Amino acid sequence: MDNTNNGSVENCQVHIDQNRALYIFYSSVVVVEFILGLLLNITVIHLFVFKLKFWKSKTIDIFLFNLVLADILLLIGLPVKAYNFQQCSEQKVVCKVQLFLQFLNRGASIAFLTVISIYRYFSVVHPGKRKVLRILKKSPQISVFIWLLLGILTIPAMLQSFIRCNSSEKDEELTPIVLLRETVFFTQIFIPFFVLVYCSILIIRRLEQKSVGDKTKLRKAMFLVTAVVLVFAICFLPYAITRAVQLKTNGPVMTEEKLTVVKLYDGLVCLSYLNCLLDPILYCLSSGKFKKLYISMYLPFLLEKQQPESSEDTADD
């Protein structure tokens, strides 16, 4: 097993050395995403806990808090990912911890993203279905259930004796545990995407049918719904599709085609982390109340510039 691992690390290092400039770029992108994402998400969490007291707030705030928390926990593992893009690691324990954080927290981020969309769908399209809304308003219980379920689904995939820290390492055998991991991976991306698209289309239709209300607010709401779907599609769909192609090219021989897929996959992994940076902007800063509070706390120098605009906006409202 040690010889196998050493050989895999050597192969990985050769692959990285042959594409040094590309993987330094990948590593730099991950570091930038880590710094910006962590700063933004920590400041948002600070407002949720100390200013908004999310546990006393609306149902949506509890889901948003869990979404941001999942993104923070995912970001914590990015320095290890940046290191692996430049230097293959032989520390399998560190590798498994990083992969566990990646699988669990990316899954949690997508799950809470989906639940938020479902909640908004019923609130806008079917406000009369009180039983469903009553269930969705049990946000603490739903949040605990999501974390426990994803933890159960993630742990078995981390228990196998050999797991790749880098996509260029030796291919894994398609054991039941590996198949379980890949099934969970594709399920938690493609099913939520279709749910998001379905909810978004019906929400937009419902908003367009509203003849009463502020047209500007309606346009902003429709833009937000559309933006969420686009961000999800850009961050996760190419990454998942390339992962499927990589599994299809699974084999003992590292062909030129396979190396190209590996490089593309690693680049799209970097793109997928962008979701951690965009989630707080799309969901938290899209709220007028939260945005004003955030600016007053962390960007007070923008208040003077926004005062003339805000007075115009008030007049328009």
TrEMBL record:
It is found in: Membrane. This is 12-(S)-hydroxy-5,8,10,14-eicosatetraenoic acid receptor-like protein. The lineage of its organism: Eukaryota, Metazoa, Chordata, Craniata, Vertebrata. Residues 40-283 form the G-protein coupled receptors family 1 profile domain. It comes from the Eukaryota. It holds the Pfam family 7tm_1. The chain crosses the membrane at residues 23-50, 62-83, 103-122, 142-163, 183-203, 223-242, 262-285. InterPro entries: GPCR_Rhodpsn, GPCR_Rhodpsn_7TM, HCARs. Keywords: G-protein coupled receptor, Membrane, Receptor, Transducer, Transmembrane, Transmembrane helix. The keyword Nuclease does not apply. SUPFAM superfamilies: Family A G protein-coupled receptor-like. GO terms for molecular function: G protein-coupled receptor activity.
